[in-house]
Amino acid sequence: MMRGCSSRAKQNQDRAVCMTNCPTLIVTVGLPARGKTYISKKLTRYLNWIGVPTREFNVGQYRRDFVKIYKSFEFFRPDNEEGLKIRRQCASAALNDVRQYLTEEGGQVAVFDATNTTRERRGTIVQFAEQNGFKVFFVESVCEDPDVIQENIVQVKLGSPDYTNCNTEEAVEDFMKRIKCYENSYETLDEVLDRDLSYIKIMDVGQRYLVNRVLDHIQSRIVYYLMNIHITPRSIYLCRHGESELNVKGRIGGDSGLTPRGKEFAKKLSQFIQSQSISDLKVWTSQMKRTIQTAEAVNVPYEQWKVLNEIDAGVCEEMMYEEIQGHYPLEFALRDQDKYRYRYPKGESYEDLVQRLEPVIMELERQENVLVICHQAVMRCLLAYFLDKTAEELPYLKCPLHTVLKLTPVAYGCKVESISLNVDAVNTHRERPENVNIHRTTKDALQTVPPHF
Amino acid sequence: MKHRSHPEQHHGKRPRVPAAAASASPQDGMEDKAPSNPRELTQNPLKKIWVPCKNGLPEKHISQRKVCMTNCPTLIVTVGLPARGKTYISKKLTRYLNWIGVPTREFNVGQYRRDFVKIYKSFEFFRPDNEEGLKIRRQCASAALNDVRQYLTEEGGQVAVFDATNTTRERRGTIVQFAEQNGFKVFFVESVCEDPDVIQENIVQVKLGSPDYTNCNTEEAVEDFMKRIKCYENSYETLDEVLDRDLSYIKIMDVGQRYLVNRVLDHIQSRIVYYLMNIHITPRSIYLCRHGESELNVKGRIGGDSGLTPRGKEFAKKLSQFIQSQSISDLKVWTSQMKRTIQTAEAVNVPYEQWKVLNEIDAGVCEEMMYEEIQGHYPLEFALRDQDKYRYRYPKGESYEDLVQRLEPVIMELERQENVLVICHQAVMRCLLAYFLDKTAEELPYLKCPLHTVLKLTPVAYGCKVESISLNVDAVNTHRERPENVNIHRTTKDALQTVPPHF
Lengths: 453, 503
What we know:
Strand content of chain A: 5-15%
Structural class of chain A: alpha/beta
GO molecular function, one term (chain A): fructose-2,6-bisphosphate 2-phosphatase activity
Active site (chain A): 241, 310
Protein name (chain A): 6-phosphofructo-2-kinase/fructose-2, 6-bisphosphatase 4 isoform X4
Largest sheet of chain A: 6 strands, mixed
Domain 6-phosphofructo-2-kinase (chain A): 18-233
Oligomer: homodimer
Largest interface: A-B, 72 and 64 residues
Shape of chain A: globular
Distance between the termini of chain A: 61 Å
Binding site for substrate (chain A): 240-247, 290
Radius of gyration of chain A: 25 Å
């Protein structure tokens, strides 16, 4: 056990598996424009979604906050004493915040995003981690493909605050010179010299990986995730099944079929998909009748996933909200108090849903163009992953019937287009009411129930 | 923007070679399709899967599997000097893939050689200048590849593991050609190790007991085997980052300390890499047991979330004593999120982790029923379950097949861990046990996992040693054997023939 680590087993009795006993410091390594920030942000998003409190610390951002106005690549010249001093200070400030996050703010993973291209700098970080009882895991990105680097610069550097007052050629030229400043002193992670470190070296955008000394569960999951993501352009389409019989009755759960309007939506969905001219579209559904009926109308091969089934409402299955309030007023109030963690009796919580959807997210990362026909709670969970929503926001994301969300990765995030297919449907979105007290009146409890037949 | 380029096919794209389980749904010619009337759906009575139907009869439909593992069959090819763990990896990987539902078989060329040559004389057979030996070895490799082809193209196999040294680029090239001709994807698994202690331990564990050395004493066997290894060393061409950059492979170095992974093409290769990166060979034991006897157990009722009976609590105490007597270093204890396993763990008095995925199989509408009541209310369901207990899904519940899928992360974490005690439930324990003991889907639901009995599993050689330790506290029997009559029109008497006694 590392010095300073404490066993968190007792606190973690409720979690699926104790991720790690010590906090973990992930450290990026690589020349500029190799995707370090892309990887940092994506990894942070993924870890937070699966329930591991994670934050990224971008040293470039510290530098921008400190230096205010970026003049040119000269700042990064290896003989620029003033520049070096500032950069070292920024790195220290970032590490300080890392320490605070991991020891006082309940963070479990910190991603330290900087070039870290010299063995000396990495040695300093390892020392810092040892002093504080953190495990260190390096993520290096190595790439010499000029097309990839060029595309990278176009996608994320041109829009950077550093280059707001430059035109494209100026920015590209300056950035190339910036990269050059690092090249001479770049010491890649070495199989022999760095054999005692834990790391993954990603080569040529994921064509090849070198993995050394994976120490624990969280590092193993991080490696698996990094080996499954790619940067090939594609779009992910999310939608719910067409309106169902139970939907119109204001009842939750169950396994009913589509209403005539739901079938109309399915037809419109088919037309929409064709109009998009998507190459090699994969279509996934749950194993519930309403999503499969919807997919049947789209008339492409589809795969059924049991884990895409709607959240299990347990004893409340097929009830109206009014009935839940009538039979289980306490449960109904508890759910409004913490909709993410609340588990239906003999059912599931949103938190459970996220855990069972993790393989779907992993496979979505591997795939390219996919249409997922699913359910309200499921769609909220998937959307929260792509749009980096918190556990508090997730259960209230708006996912109306008969609307397709088209997600396209762009720069460091995800572009969302919401396409309504113009077929009427009931509203199934129930906002959090004002009064969540367990002694509230029925009127207060049912204040936000959407209208139904 | 430059995409990742793959030598064969891009993951996610339709294969050039038609998949074995191709769908009847149209693929091409979609451009001019007016939305026709969608097909009606019917629910398969056994698995409760909705499938399209015509005139009330199910139509042919693509795989309802969770995810299409791969479009083509996959040929996994081991690479490495003798005593580097190739057969250990082959067998373990095969066991894992079969358990998660991917039909896999291993083809050990050494076994073909033993069947052909009958009596092994000495390492001289493997000398690179032994023309006779080379000829035989090539024939054995060909025979094995022939069986691979038959398994993957005619017998419904999806993955074949070709276990041999395959240490030259030339031999590997031949295999790649064979795969291309047959439309198989190839994935190499190389094991590289120079640690003499590891190699020595390997020889002791699995070579000394080999049929090749039944008539030798230990020193003779070790000496001969070392010379055997030497025969391969001069011509050994390890997978090279440059020369072999177009191949898909994982190179495992120093028993998992380091890995090089190149061109993972699809989902199944990604899962294989993840699995191989999580297994280890550190000696340890896994203890499996059920919760102590519960209130619903004694009433003959299934499922639910009841507490322990006094006898169940007695078992929990005995379990605590047993665990202490075993003097296990760093024992992890896992339970489900059901009261009866947690109550049991509480008595053991060590920190434990609760896993929701370890919860007992969900019996849906049959939760908390006695078998007699299931027969009374759902005689058809009860019969279907006896017909195919592995695939049968309770209405609004789960099947054993579903259970295996949700337990996969538990197996993965068990592989990562060392000493672990898992306190779980009957169906769950059957699934975990089936993984460790390589039981088929047919055997799995009938494995005996009685209450108040601990199974201690210790990896040894290529398999798992099982010790069954009864803690001598009486409990009801909850094991219901498959009755003789599984026909849906059987009598109640026939249906209930094998129900164990209860209060």
